[in-house]
Request: fold
Amino acid sequence: MSSDPMQELIDGYHAFRNGRWPAERQRYLDLAKHGQKPQTLVITCSDSRSDPATIFNASPGSMFVIRNVAAIVPPYETDDSHHGTSAAIAFAVLNLEVRNILVMGHAQCGGVSAALDNSIADGVPFLRAWVDLLKPAVDRLPEGTPDAHTLLERDAVRLSLEQLMSFPFVAERVNAGKLELNGARFGIADGKLELLDKKTGKFAAL
Ligand SMILES: [Zn+2]
Reply:
């Protein structure tokens, strides 16, 4: 592996062009001609280790992906601020008409660490206000638990799913049975995925 980061990308591109591209060429052509029609929106962390295309062995065109710090869905707000995550959710639901939204957290999440430890976001513009969105989940952690980080990784996913239901166009489609919401957590070290059981509200390994 090259130590030059741009060279690393270029080497990876060449591997793609020589390897995956010939096999996927027709799919890319079809996607270019007919447009994308992904069925799933994945909302996950920007963390370099929790890449959904890798974890779900995804083909081009199969999932629309939003990545941000800690896979947070912000509250539904209708002011004129620049709501990047909300804009992408709206596009996926209203224009692409995805049928499934998966919020996926992960182990060793730095955004979750920043929500638990105020010093981490010090000197990082924007980060404090962003991870403060996890405060409702931080506040409902069992007091004195030694497992706060892992519990918050899971509860942050539940909170994002709750926030999704504050988007009227999401709630409307969920209630009409046109859209389902799911949660998951990826274990970096063991590569295992936990899914949120909607009946019990608990995460269980697949
Ligand atoms: Zn993370």
